[in-house]
Design goal:
This protein is of the alpha/beta class. The protein is 30% helix and 26% strand. The strands form 2 sheets. The protein has a 6-stranded mixed β-sheet with strand order 1-3-4-5-6-7. Strands 2-8 form a two-stranded parallel ribbon. The protein starts with a helix and ends with a strand.
Length: 164
């Protein structure tokens, strides 16, 4: 076996998200295998869970990767994760009050805008739902108008992102 053949055998196959990220200038080079793109606190099993760790393909820290890009929104969504060829948009964020809803809605607005205008190849893999996983206590009334605003934007609020 040649050196090139050994190298190709050791390299994991390119996933749909890896290819789409490579073709998206804002985030090219930011794809990480598994959950490596997530900060340690955001990988915590109390926030994120999955049926099979072998099905976690890769992730991108969108907020960090796009912080220097000129976009019309001040806040950005945190992560995109690929699990078993499905896309999960993941935002770990406090939910201590109604003011947090406006903040997360702003992040969702950015994500929808960004996917449409700057990341169409990523968008074709999945454009929602968006998962807001609350960190700490959640003080948001699920019968409130603000909560309904979240749902209208395609944001699902929960205590844990479960990928299956």
């Amino acid at each position: 076996m040649t050196r090139q053949q050994r190298h190709e055998k050791e390299m994991p196959p390119l996933t749909p998200l890896a290819v789409a990220v490579a073709d998206t200038p804002d985030v090219a080079g930011c794809y990480q295998v598994g959950l490596q793109a997530l900060e340690a606190k955001d990988r915590d099993r109390s926030l994120i869970d999955y049926e099979n760790p072998n099905k976690i393909q890769g992730s991108v820290y969108l907020d960090k990767a796009t912080e220097k890009c000129k976009h019309p929104f001040p806040k950005r969504w945190d992560y995109v994760i690929e699990y078993d060829n499905k896309i999960y948009y993941y935002e770990p964020h406090p939910a201590s009050g109604g003011d947090k809803i406006d903040e997360v809605c702003g992040k969702a607005d950015w994500l929808m805008w960004w996917l449409k205008n700057n990341a169409p190849k990523i968008r074709t893999l999945g454009s929602g739902p968006f998962y807001w996983i609350h960190t700490g206590k959640c003080n948001i009334d699920k019968n409130s108008q603000q909560y309904k605003k979240l749902l209208d934007k395609g944001v699902k609020l929960g205590s844990r992102l479960y990928m299956k």
